[in-house]
## 1
Amino acid sequence: MGQLFAGIIFVIPTVRLVLNFFRNVAIKRRNELRRQAANRVTADSEDILSKLSSAAQLAASKVDPRTLKIVYSTEIDLDLQEDRDASEFGQKLGKLDTE
């Protein structure tokens, strides 16, 4: 019985040591991939700088809501809006069939 306890006392820490080793290897690999991705983003790449510039311009631009096609409005009941959209779709589909 004493040998069983001695074996358990030796085996459990050894198993934990092995599991922790593989877990730490996976964590180090994941951290290295994160570091590489962060370096790619923070590098002064022309592609990334142009994308950031265009995103900033788009965010700064003012959009006139009257020029946008409003899909749903709170002024009309939702059921009526869906029927209107369905009839518009049917009309457009009919135009395609006749062409």
Note: Residues 2-98 form one domain.
## 2
Amino acid sequence: MQNSTSLLLRQVISLPPQERAALVEGIIASLDRPDPSLDALWLKEAQDRLAAYDAGELEAIDADEVFAELGGSTSEPLRRAIRSA
């Protein structure tokens, strides 16, 4: 790590937890910039999958089956949210 980065890190670590969390959120948001071309590709992929499902060319897999296959590695709150969607 460069000296300026090390200094900045030491300063950030000395901040109260709420301020550090806000700083982290700001840094992550600065890295997560929308890419319209990528968004368009994902939209097309989702539309194609839905069309294939509607046409009977693609079957749905129950969420419990997927989670069981993953070894239950997904948290229960996420499971509940997916089931209720």
Note: The chain has two domains: 1-33, 34-85.
## 3
Amino acid sequence: MPLIRLDKWREKYFIGNERPSMPDLQRNCKNGTLPAQKICKRWYILVSSENDLTPIQNRSITGNPAADALVNRVLAAGVQ
């Protein structure tokens, strides 16, 4: 599943004046609302494919629902 830089995703996924602000998107990444990873001070959105820019909401990493919930909380907390 590809990652796309937050600013590029914002340009492609939202149209014109309907785009949310970057601080709002970054806040959503930080609190886990958007499936994102922070790499070298930049946020990247996890998308289905390069042609489908819909963010992936339910990531199953281990196959165990309890473990997946824990992993998602840890990833959402991020590293500062």
Note: Residues 32 and 74 are 10 Å apart (CA to CA).
## 4
Amino acid sequence: MTEESLLTINIEIPFPSNRTAELAYHVLRVDAEPKKTIQKEVTHKEHLLIVKFQGSSSKQLRVAVNSVFENIILINETLDAFGDSISETYTHFT
């Protein structure tokens, strides 16, 4: 499939701090898409979590975006329940 025929969705999700955006990034970056027809790129910049999706099927893109939003809801609920990390750096996966 050529680059021009791919559908693209870019999402920027603000978090209260750089630290919480980094935590969300580390959670989402290891979650591979089950369908290899969808490409997902997760990055973070300051307090923003940035997710880019590319694929040829709008239905598969919708499913992928919904999955990421469900994970972000779970991340926020976990942070609300247990609080933010005490340390300023996250080194478990680096």
Note: The longest strand covers residues 7-14.
